[in-house]
Amino acid sequence: MKHDASGTCRGGPQIEKNKNNDLVLQINEAGRSQIEIDFARLQLNLTISSALKRALLANVGHTAADTQKKAFASLMLLSQCLHAAGQADSPQIPFDVAYTFAKWLDASNLGYSAQVHLQTVLNLLKWCQRNAAEIIPQRATFVVHPIRSQWAAKSQPRELLSETLLKRILRACYEDIEFAERELTRGSRLRSGEVETPEERRHSELIHELLKLGKGELARQRLAHRSGHAYPRRVAAMGGQRAIGEILWLSPTKLFPFYLAILTQVSGNPDAVRNMRRSCVVPHPIRSDLECLVWEKPRSGKEQRAEFPTARQWSAPNLVRRLKQLNDELVSSAPASIKERLFICRSTSSRNIIMLSPSLVHLYFHEFIDRHGLPPFHMKDLRRAGAVLHHQAGKSIEVARRRLNHDSIRTTELYTGISDRADAHDAKINSFQGEMIRLSIGMAKSGQKVSDVNKLESVGADTVFGFRCRNPLSGIAPGSTAGQTCMQFMRCATCPGSIIPVDDPTIVARLLEALNALENARERSLSEGWSRRYELLYEPTRLILLSEIIPVIHSSVLEAARDLVQQRLVPYLD
Question: Would you call 522 exposed, middle or buried from its count of C-beta atoms within 10 A (0-12, 13-18, 19+)?
């Protein structure tokens, strides 16, 4: 059997060239040009290729274009496996295809992704067995053991990226960004004739000659060589045509660190962030010291959002502005489908204006890790690391939920659960256990008798938001002073001196009253224009009550507490 350069088979009696485009799957997606997947590239029997096309449409035809392309990539691996086994010419897929494919993947170097490819192909073949029985025997079985690379991956789970490593990644990105800006600034000077040394003058003259010869583009190597003027030697002195192009226009190499830095900061999904629009920076709806980065996530159908201080040099919104300055001149020449995209650049090979693609991201990601001497990690690890760090810094999983733009905390718990803060929780439990032991043997930490400690408890107080304070004179809360009455009532929800017996309806009633008052204050702050003060003073307490305290109270206690809610009113908040 012979194949032409495009991968289409010729000469085989059962494998026909796709003349009528029956095997071409056309994908239309909003904001993108039409994408075509040609199933003739599988180089399998025409009936088999057609059935696999229908299977892909039925299983993933409703998903994003990238998901469909990944499914086709799995079928391409199946095709390679069948060719290697000498079974590609058969009019029917062999009954033991699952075993054969799993064994072939097991011997590959695909690592963890091999199991994903196996499962994708098995799902498509199961559909074919039900709906295209002529291409696969009914006796075919799809029960196979997970491949060994999957076991190895599970036996050695990846560690959480530490804050130190995230900072190293960002520093490396910033170094590359500054280098890219310097190089493109130098190229802009040379193109405009602003030179500082005799060497720069020679480089500037060469650039002008190549642009003139290429009618606005750098003249191709063959054309330049035919034109004389010692172009081969002069171009080589500047590092070659690729090097010249990289200082004149933003290239994929110089674009990648912008993408990685922004992805790390927003803790987003890699593909959703890659599709950011140029209009992604928007003002904060309330606070003038903050601004937002917004992008789309097609799978959830929900706008994603992350907030950043306006004054930080390396914040994601400022990186967006710096990137737009570098690729702004490319927008007019870009295809209509990507004109509004942020991550566009000029291909160093085709010289077309392109968008950063998944394949380019994969290529430059590994090159970036090797060049900066970073330990291996996966790009999706950045999202989990961001979730855990926001959880720890905010002392609430609600902070992580908002950063990851999840609707439900249950989803956020897949990234950061209670176990992520186990050490901190154990330390807090140990401190209370130690106090209980001291009390049980009649000794407090300061040497007081149990009766003295009980007296100290008796002078405790109910706080504004319904918490019971063990000792308002202890100075435990940040900003308070021992011996003076604590005025940090906004921080009771996170203070270790707070006592919250969630099985006492009277206490729970006070908490419900506090939550009602906070909800009312929140609505008034938006309409009366003092929402910034509300966010700083009251919002943390509302979030903790809503997401961490109320959910753990038993329904029967809540029922009893609701009848007591009107017995005590929270002071008017403003």
Answer: middle
CA distance 341 to 324: 10
Alpha-carbon separation of residue 113 from 98, 222, 314, 490 (angstroms): 16, 42, 34, 49
CB 334 within 8 Å of CB 353: yes
H, E, C per residue of 458-492: HCCEECCCCCEECCCCCCCCCCCCCCCCCCCHHHH
* CB 513, CB 570: distance < 8 Å: yes
Are 379 and 263 in contact, with CB atoms under 8 Å apart? yes
Q: Which residues pair with 24 in a beta bridge?
A: 38
Q: Classify the C-alpha dihedral 436-438-439-444 as positive or negative.
A: negative
**Cα 390 to Cα 400: distance, rounded to the nearest angstrom:** 5
Structure tokens at 195: 């030179």
In Å, what is the CA distance from 533 to each residue of 73, 536, 540, 573? Answer: 53, 5, 12, 11
- For the stretch 50-72, pLDDT in tens is 999 999 999 988 877 778 888 99
Distances (CA, A) of 248 to 2, 198, 350, 562: 43, 19, 15, 69
pLDDT tens figures, 471-487? 665 656 655 566 565 65
Residue located via tokens 């970036």: 368
Cα 197 from chain centroid? 45
Is the pLDDT at 130 greater than 70? The verdict is yes
Question: Closest by alpha carbon to 501, among 557, 562, 573, 542?
Answer: 557
Cα 441 to Cα 334: distance, rounded to the nearest angstrom:
78
Helices 163-192 and 198-213, packing angle to 10 deg: 80
- C-alpha to C-alpha distance for 523 and 574, rounded to whole angstroms: 11
Is the full-model pTM beyond 0.90?
no
Beta carbons within 8 Å of 442's beta carbon, 6+ residues apart: 449, 450
Residue type, 369: I
